[in-house]
């Protein structure tokens, strides 16, 4: 599974070079997972499937973003003889004031078994936090 995550991560990095130019009439949300051996993907905007898994681009106003975050809980959080436990989680982030032409960043990470997500504006101010929407083992 680790090879799969690393390969997926490398493919996502390679795909970043091919990101489209942001539309100035919309808000752009970059995705960033803070820890290695993880993956963060755009899933839905306002209960509609995201067009591209690498970022969100939304009309100005209020939106709910759903992301998929995959990570491995390390043996230090499970038990001395355990193998890493892979988790596949969804998180929802609501924000009511996306602005046209602005660039935001959604970051995700985890502590033990618990994923987290934070939404930042261009000045690196936290403007939203994710709420877990369910996890499963992979």
Structure description:
With 138 residues, the chain is mainly β. The chain has one domain (2-15, 27-137). 11% of the residues lie in helices and 54% in strands. It has 1 helix and 9 strands. It has one helix at 2-16; strands at residues 27-33, 39-45, 48-49, 55-58, 61-73, 85-98, 103-111, 114-120, 126-137. The protein has a 9-stranded mixed beta sheet with strand order 3-2-5-6-9-8-7-1-4. A hairpin with a 2-residue loop joins strand 7 (103-111) and strand 8. The longest helix has 15 residues, at 2-16. The protein starts with a helix and ends with a strand. Mean pLDDT is 86; it is low at 3-7. This is Lipoprotein.
Summary tags:
single chain, 138 residues, mainly beta, nine-stranded mixed β-sheet, 1 helix, 9 strands, disordered N terminus
Report the strand count: 9
Q: Calculate Rg over CA atoms.
A: 15 Å
**Main sheet properties:** 9 strands, mixed
**SS-based structural class?**
mainly beta
Mean pLDDT across all amino acids: 86
Helix content: 10-25%
Distinct helical segment count: 1
Give the overall silhouette: elongated
In sequence order, what are the helices and strands, one letter per element?
A: HEEEEEEEEE
